[in-house]
Amino acid sequence: MYLRHLSLVDYRSYPVAEVELEPGITTFVGLNGQGKTNLVEAAGYLASLSSHRVAQDAPLVRAGAEQAIIRAVVVRDGREQIVELEINPGRANRARLGRAALTRPRDILGALRTVLFAPEDLALVKGDPSERRRFLDELLVARQPRWAGARADYDKILKQRNALLKSSMPLLRKGARRPRRDESQPEDEARASALHTLDVWNTHLAQVGSSLLYARLRLLHDLSPYLAKAYDEVSAGRGAAQASYRSSVHEEVASVIAAGEVPEQADLQQAMHDTFAQVRSQEVERGVTLVGPHRDDLVLQLGDLPAKGYASHGESWSFALGLRLAAFQLLRTDLGTDPVLVLDDVFAELDAGRRARLAAMVEDAEQVLVTAAVADDVPDALTGRTFHVTLGEVSREPA
Ligand SMILES: Nc1ncnc2c1ncn2[C@@H]1O[C@H](COP(=O)(O)OP(=O)(O)OP(=O)(O)O)[C@@H](O)[C@H]1O
């Protein structure tokens, strides 16, 4: 698929922008801070409903404006579709596909697929586990948009379970007493009722959590060969990249998972349940849920060493790039169409060999959008059509 047109209204630094695009390679060149990343970030947001730079929507709306609009014409297998999103910080966002207004913005997912590689991706290797969980979950959604709903359900149940753990901490602690406002209910009864409610949440969380865990494991299983190959190509055979899953379920099942096996979902559900029983006193003590996909991590390994804390800066970059290129290849195979590949400001960080190899790996993608502050950093093979971005003006360089 490719973007034929991108229009922005009050998005970041742009009061208005209209950019006509084509398949193949397009490069946006301009000095720092002129709005290059803003353009490609908008495309990424339309595809994933999240920004690679910020967790909140407010910075996406131009300072002083109330809402931002991203509209794109997406072409897939020769058919065009208009995809539109209104970003309303503090209120619900609104989405449209063609003429149809969608009930939920997340129903827009899948209409445009992008894989975006940016300097922020270094955090995939060097950052917290939450970065790697986000990578997996976003890829899950890019592959099958229905996972956005399951992910949201999981977060909701988790929040409710944490609230219960917090609010009932003194009651749930065996033998602990606290002065009760409602003295009509004896302490033992209140405790039994809190425990019963906790069991109900355990069942819900184990059910939704195990399906998310299972989906992540299947995804990782499918992604791994592409990762090994992409890293090998980017680094010209210098090192073997691997990713394994570290699960918070009890050790017996966790070690099976770490070894790369994918247990049945029913077994994962049972394992989550059993682990809740094992860690109950710790959870009650701390008032948070200690088991589930929200506590897991993806362990990245270069040869025999963990990437985090050991890999050099260049190796970490290559690893992050390997993960994104693997995601691209997986989606290409799965969807039968290429996602739009975005390379935001990445060439300045790579040595000449890596630049050339990256260019060779992506030049056959249906559409590649590249941003660079220095045009010479972009390998010749990827220069393609060039747009100059100057103070929010996007103008195409004459051919
Ligand atoms: N919500 C907003 N309202 C107005 N301006 C904004 C907003 N968010 C970001 N900007 C401005 O957008 C500019 C940054 O744009 P962008 O990140 O696209 O730059 P860039 O061309 O990619 O630069 P670099 O080469 O440094 O990465 C900054 O000047 C910033 O102040």
Distance N to C terminus: 24 Å
* Low-pLDDT windows of residues: none
Q: Indicate the overall shape.
A: globular
Q: Tell me about the biggest sheet?
A: 6 strands, antiparallel
Strand content: 15-25%
Instruction: Determine the number of helices (DSSP H or I, runs of at least 4 residues).
Output: 11
Q: What is the CATH topology of the largest domain?
A: Glutathione S-transferase Yfyf (Class Pi), Chain A, domain 2
Q: Helical content, roughly? A: 40-55%
Organism: Luteipulveratus mongoliensis
Function: The RecF protein is involved in DNA metabolism; it is required for DNA replication and normal SOS inducibility. RecF binds preferentially to single-stranded, linear DNA. It also seems to bind ATP.
GO molecular function, one term: ATP binding
Keywords: ATP-binding, Cytoplasm, DNA damage, DNA repair, DNA replication, DNA-binding, Nucleotide-binding, SOS response
Q: Secondary structure elements and their pairing?
A:
Blueprint: E1 2-11, E2 14-20, E3 24-29, H1 36-48, E4 68-76, E5 79-87, E6 94-97, E7 100-101, E8 114-117, H2 122-126, H3 129-143, H4 147-167, H5 169-172, H6 187-234, E9 241-246, H7 251-258, H8 265-278, H9 280-286, E10 297-302, E11 305-306, H10 313-335, E12 340-344, H11 352-362, E13 367-372, E14 385-390, E15 393-396
Parallel strand pairs: 3-13, 3-14, 8-12, 12-13
Antiparallel strand pairs: 1-2, 1-4, 4-5, 5-6, 6-7, 9-10, 10-11, 14-15
Helix pairs in contact: 3-6, 4-6, 6-8, 6-10
The structure holds adenosine-5'-triphosphate.
GO biological process, one term: DNA synthesis involved in DNA repair
Keywords: ATP-binding, Cytoplasm, DNA damage, DNA repair, DNA replication, DNA-binding, Nucleotide-binding, SOS response
Family: Belongs to the RecF family.
